[in-house]
Design goal:
This protein is mostly helical. It is built from 2 helices and no strands. 0% of the residues are buried.
């Protein structure tokens, strides 16, 4: 008799995808406090490029 744990293959794949998302978020939170000051010190702006200002009405219609 084959024992099953009640988990489906789709549920396991979904959980693995969620774990990857959590891992990426953790690395992002670890790296940004290091990268952002270096980015600002190099004279680069934290503002989005002007192309996003022109496309703003397309992405967020009123």
């Amino acid at each position: 008799m084959k024992r099953t744990s009640g988990y489906t293959n789709a549920a396991v794949r979904s959980n693995i995808a969620r774990l990857y998302i959590i891992t990426i978020a953790e690395w992002f939170m670890l790296a940004m406090p290091i990268v952002f000051p270096f980015y600002k010190e190099s004279g680069l702006s934290s503002e989005p490029p002007a192309v996003f200002d022109r496309c703003d009405h397309i992405m967020f219609p009123e």
